[in-house]
From TrEMBL:
TPR-type repeats, residues: 2-35, 36-69, 70-103
Domain SGS: 268-358
UniProt feature, compositional bias: Low complexity: 133-146
Gene3D superfamilies: 2.60.40.790, Tetratricopeptide repeat domain (1.25.40.10)
Domain of life: Eukaryota
Species for this entry: Camelina sativa
Family: Belongs to the SGT1 family.
Keywords carried by this UniProt record: TPR repeat
Location of the region described as Disordered in the Swiss-Prot/TrEMBL record: 124-153
Protein name: Protein SGT1 homolog B-like
Signal peptide: none
Residue intervals of the CS domain: 157-246
Alphabetized Pfam families for the sequence: CS, SGS, TPR_8
Xref: SUPFAM superfamilies: HSP20-like chaperones, TPR-like
Amino acid sequence: MAKELADKATEAFLDDDFDVAVDLYSKAIDLDPNCAAFFADRAQAYIKLNSFTEAVGDANKAIALEPTLAKAYLRKGTACMKLEEYSTAKAALEKGASVAPNDSKFKKMIDECDLRIAEEEKELVQPVPPSLPSSSSTPLATEADAPPVPTPAAPAKPMFRHEFYQKPEEAVVTIFAKGIPKEKVTVEFGEQILSVVIDVAGEEAYHLQPRLFGKIIPEKCRYEVLSTKVEIRLAKAEIITWASLEYGKGQGVLPKPNVSSAVAQRPVYPSSKPAKDWDKLEAEVKKQEKDEKLDGDAAMNKFFSDIYSSADEDMRRAMNKSFAESNGTVLSTNWKEVGTKKVESTPPDGMELKKWEY
């Protein structure tokens, strides 16, 4: 039954009825999801419909099922070239050429990739005049009547919700797919392509294949299948803020400079107020307190306080004991005398200091 559907899909493709071909190939895949040829053929139909990211996803699936299927590499190379992913296209075509060394199509397309890569490198070296828009040169087409590359549309029926957030150096895509086995998830990275395919038992496979807002470094990208989600980390090729996950939606923004460092390096102008020397001020206050002239009880308390602060341990013990035993009427600094006898108190009114020994 699957083979019959695939044959009908091929007839529709030859009749240029590519939508019908995709539909029939999809039904054949539902019946036989392990047939690599079905995915490779549907990828060709997707290319004719300008659905290049979907074509890359199908080609990757075909390669995973049958690594020696030469036409799968050809489909991936063609779709990546349409997306201007020339390095990714070249890598796929070189693998295909190793599988089918006698097929001249691979060499011709590899040469074209080399030409386009050299042009891109040349554009990076040569500065663009201010009066001209900073856009790339007109791309070479693989076919004379090749249509312009449209922005890939989002999947019509998203099975799982996804979202993304970003840091200056990476973008993180989260697909909320719960309880999916790791072997059912296929993730491929290109220069500016993310291809995610999740096989779900009894349902149509989930596809997320956007052309990304900016270029990434495929070898530094990684993903992890968790119990509640699939987390994909995309290493950015440039440190810019993406306006969205998909290409063509807004403009990138350079990160803001570090304001704190700029403030820290702010110059000091002659008109700036000098910083206060708090240690100097504290020393001046202490000197004023020391030189301050007091009267009456305040002067006597200060006098005794100065004696106590400069006394040794024995003198302090003598002063404390004599003051306590005399109820505050005697203050002695002689420990030999105070330490061997009790100090008597004989004040007539309790207000005057009757004895002071030192």
